[in-house]
Design goal:
The protein is of the alpha+beta class. It has five helices and eleven strands; from the N terminus they run H-H-E-E-E-H-E-E-H-E-E-E-E-E-H-E.
Length: 211
């Protein structure tokens, strides 16, 4: 028992001496530049990302002319009174055969003061529109009042003549026809007064375009 008591202090002394003589372990020193880079990276990662910029919504450009009183379809446009509107007369007669680029029939009514009919036909190479004018002329109700007035308007051969009709509410009017591109167009109006037909046609043709 005495021998064991003497051995324990000696063992502790040996362990202390070994610890004192062993080489000291030092922690590695970080490069300050690396520490700064890490701090910057962590700061940037913590910043909330910005909401992506929404590009502006494109809006249609302004129309060069007012669309009030203009019919545009089948690759042409034509003017008409603001208080009237064309409808597809061919589709009204038969939904299976509506108007198209190559031929069509439009009508507009303001009963009992005005009726407008408008037809077209694809006829490549045709420069004389009289045949379509005669087609639109009603042999039972219309009578040409004088001779054709033929003019070259904006590069189009235009024929125009006043008419009288047997329709009591609209006994006067006019009929016209012209060529544009590979099509021939014809227009007719019935009115209560003879003097209103001419200005109506001029307004319609002034806003006419075709492709």
């Amino acid at each position: 028992m005495k021998k064991t008591a003497l051995l324990f202090p000696n063992l502790c002394l040996i362990l202390l001496l070994m610890a004192a003589c062993s080489p000291k372990t030092t922690l590695p020193t970080l490069d300050p530049n690396i520490q700064i880079q890490q701090a910057v990276a962590e700061t940037l990662a913590a910043i909330p990302t910005a909401t992506p910029y929404t590009p502006p919504t494109p809006f249609p450009s302004a129309t060069p002319i007012s669309l009030a009183g203009v019919f545009c379809e089948y690759q042409f446009c034509i003017g008409h009174p603001n208080n009237m509107a064309f409808y597809d007369h061919m589709a009204a007669l038969n939904q299976l055969t509506p108007s198209a680029y190559n031929n069509g029939f439009l009508a507009a009514y303001q009963i009992p003061t005005m009726v407008i009919n408008f037809i077209w036909l694809q006829a490549p190479g045709t420069s004389d529109p009289q045949f379509l004018l005669e087609t639109l002329l009603d042999d039972q109700a219309d009578t040409k009042n004088g001779t054709f007035d033929v003019k070259l308007i904006r590069g189009m051969n235009v024929m125009y003549v006043p008419i009288t009709t047997t329709i009591s509410e609209v006994p006067f009017g006019a009929i016209a026809a012209w060529t544009c591109g590979d099509r021939v167009f014809a227009w007719k109006v019935y009115t209560p007064q003879a003097e209103t037909a001419g200005p109506l046609f001029e307004e319609a043709l002034a806003r006419f375009t075709c492709n």
